[in-house]
Design goal:
The chain contains 3 helices and 7 strands; from the N terminus they run βααββββββα. The protein starts with a strand and ends with a helix. The longest helix is centred in the C-terminal third of the chain and has 24 residues. The protein is globular. By secondary structure, it is α+β, with helices and mostly antiparallel strands.
Length: about 140
């Protein structure tokens, strides 16, 4: 099983960050390469659009408001993987004045090496968290 993980520290309180990114349907609010998201199955399935027109379908596996985290599984995607399970989490730092956002996952490569699929998701996580930081830096 391959893995990837990324984190970023923000000078923004954890609850404020969670209010932006904590909804399972909120990726278009902060992630530029996901222009749209639609929920189905009572909010447990999200259908995401990529700029290239391909779609990603993910299932919410766990949601913890108190711990500010959710875990999801990819059902359909144009990625060379299977058994993808990832978590997005916001932790409080500096006595509540700032936060650390963590995005990590594990998956099994299909037709590529562990290193190649890990690099793919590492790039997605790193770019996503950089976009989140840019969102706050623009304010």
């Amino acid at each position: 099983m391959a893995t990837a993980s990324s984190s970023i520290d923000l000078d923004v309180p954890a609850q404020q960050v969670w209010d932006l990114i904590g909804g399972f349907d909120s990726l278009p609010d902060w992630l530029p390469y996901i222009p749209s998201s639609e929920l189905s199955d009572g909010g447990r399935i999200r259908h995401l659009a990529n700029p290239d027109g391909s779609s990603i379908v993910e299932r919410l596996m766990a949601f913890d408001e108190k711990e500010r985290s959710y875990t999801y599984h990819i059902l359909e995607a144009p990625f060379p993987q299977k058994d993808y399970l990832a978590t997005l989490r916001v932790r409080e730092t500096d006595g509540g004045k700032s936060s650390r956002v963590e995005w990590f996952g594990e998956f099994t490569p299909v037709g590529v090496t562990d290193v190649e699929v890990s690099a793919l998701f590492q790039g997605i996580y790193d770019d996503g968290l950089a976009a989140l930081k840019a969102h706050y830096d623009a304010k």
